[in-house]
Amino acid sequence: MKTGNGSESKKAGRKRTGSLVEKRGSFYLVVSERDPLTGKRKRIWLATGETNKRKAQAKAKELFEPFAARDTADRLAHLAGQLDAAQAQAAALEDAADTGLRIADAWIEYLNAKNRPDTGAATLHQYELQFAAFEDWASKRKPPLSLMREVGDKEAADFVSHLERAKRTPNTINKYLNLLQLVWRVLAKPARLPVNPWGDIRRKKLDPVARRELTLAELKTVCGAATGELATLLALGLFTGMRLGDCCTLRWGETDLTRGVILKDTRKTGKAVQIPIHAELRALLKQAEGDRAGEYVLPEYAAAYLKRNSTVTARIQKHFTDCGIVTAAPERKQRTRRGVEVGFHSLRHSFVSLCANAGVPLAAVQSIVGHTSPAMTRHYVHLGIEAAQGAIAALPSVSGDAPDKLKAAPSPADALAKIEKLARGMTGDNWQTVRAAIIEAASAKE
Length: 446
Known about the structure:
Helix content is 51%, strand content 10%. It is of the alpha+beta class.
């Protein structure tokens, strides 16, 4: 600020001036600025309280500082406004140049994404089928959707309505929503997605039909009536607790008949499981090994299952029906169609129930069926193979009168040796499981 003849602080579109004026022996700072409302210039008189000009100049400089600061603030605000406008223009140009991912390319991008979850092969295939169904709907919609970022709340709701018209079950609709929400989350950056439209859609209330386990009498009927590969397939489901896909695609390289174990990476979760082979299953596998043709234990069922059609399931359901078992669930008014209550997965339930009835420790069962909970994994991580073998051996036979297929009961000397081995391997982590195995070995009869 200059004093004497005056000074001014300049800003585009606005000026402020300050002058030191003497009046009746005292000095005043007179500030001139334009009124932002009227546009007229006005003068503000500020007393310095000084009669000495030099002291008055110093005081005037101090009084003028707030006005100078306002000039600076206005100038910065003006620059900030210009910056915001430039950024908005740049974003608009960027959007025009890069519209994000096309829906047709999204699945390949999802598979290649480093931030997607590690999913088992079977589940990933199911995801692919679900996304393909969404892609087909999006391409046929009027107007069609070509970009991921074109899917907003309304479009997401329209797809749910499409699934409802197709009479998809609430569980199926929820699976679609969860998969699409996952894909949109993983591809948010490359697809330039402002929001994820799938997360806010309320999931459907479930009315599930649970698979029930088969009774021992039903198991003996369905297993006794089965022949060929079907007999081996049913035995695999019952005595290992594995899912249909894992049973159908079991390879000889995953089956060690000498050690009596199956080592399998499950298709759904990718988890590795180690399953001792029951004596009855071992006899069927030995018989199949004699007719071995190719890498799969069940080549006919493996080929049918890998074609991804319903042939395998249809065969199994027909066999259950031929054995006099009602596979459909009771009718419910709120359901559009009857669910399946008895199927191949019922063998997995039967496996767990039979183990529980035989007093097999829960940790042993979870180890065999490949439980995915990290907490339960920590619980049974120290489980020994002897305890798992005891769990499988505890399962009853379903083959009727075929004693030649069953493993002979251990001799007292064998039982004593097994007990000693179990005792030597006992730790603070596995003592409960080992104790159960010791009791089982000690009670074995010749």
